[in-house]
Amino acid sequence: MGRALARAAADAGDRVLATARRPEALTELRECHPDTVETCALDVRDPDACAAAVQVAVDRFGGVDVLVNNAGCGTLGAVEELTDDEIEAQLQTLLLGPWRMTRLVLPLMRAQGSGHLLMVSSTTGRSAMPGLGAYVASKFALEGMTETLALETAGTGIRVTLLEAGVFATNYGASLADAATRLPAYRPVVDPIGALIRGEVPAGFTLSEPEEFADTVLALVNDAAQPPLRLPLGAGAWGILTEAADRDRAAMAELAVKWGVALPAR
């Protein structure tokens, strides 16, 4: 998804700093757009690498107008199965990395009075799935951090958007790691999720392509004067999040009746 976005932005004439843990994978993109594309190594778990990447953007392009936090990873395992190290690895990439990059570019954006911060979240940021506890916790936390940031930057010219991704045709499933410890008790509920993510797509279900993600992000950045805080995109996203909101409303109504609470009029 990040590669598709970088390519689409470059093709549209934007100046792009594309980063990856292995920047050689971006050589073709840079060679196709030598005047407008720069690449550099970046592991968002490394504070020094994060600072260096932002400095590359400043040195080459004069600053940062748009930051897309898109680094991702996953570990399949029930809450009881995951170790502290496995949980920390997820949080480092999915929460602390985006937080770190955001903290680094905010002074630049505040100084210029504009900017757009895009956090690639997921439907799991509002609707949990078994077997992905660390991933889900990271996305829930990312959404909370981003909503807080939007309140803090209101009126500054800095725009903030959560991209709540559905199911895209990427290599995420192939890179999904298994927890070191797997308990038989959780196999019936966790293993089907792993199979689904690793490619056993239900009949009739169509995956979204990364190019769709790229087109949506470019349209959002270029055309939306008042971009939404949250934008579902990709296969299944709107349905999953609508169902989650409906469940929450129904649960609140049921609790209100049980505990004798008068809900505010809608």
UniProtKB/TrEMBL annotation:
It comes from the Bacteria. Keywords: Oxidoreductase. InterPro entries: NAD(P)-bd_dom_sf, Sc_DH/Rdtase_CS, SDR_fam, SDR_oxidoreductase. One of its GO terms (molecular function) is oxidoreductase activity. Belongs to the short-chain dehydrogenases/reductases (SDR) family. This is Short-chain dehydrogenase/reductase.
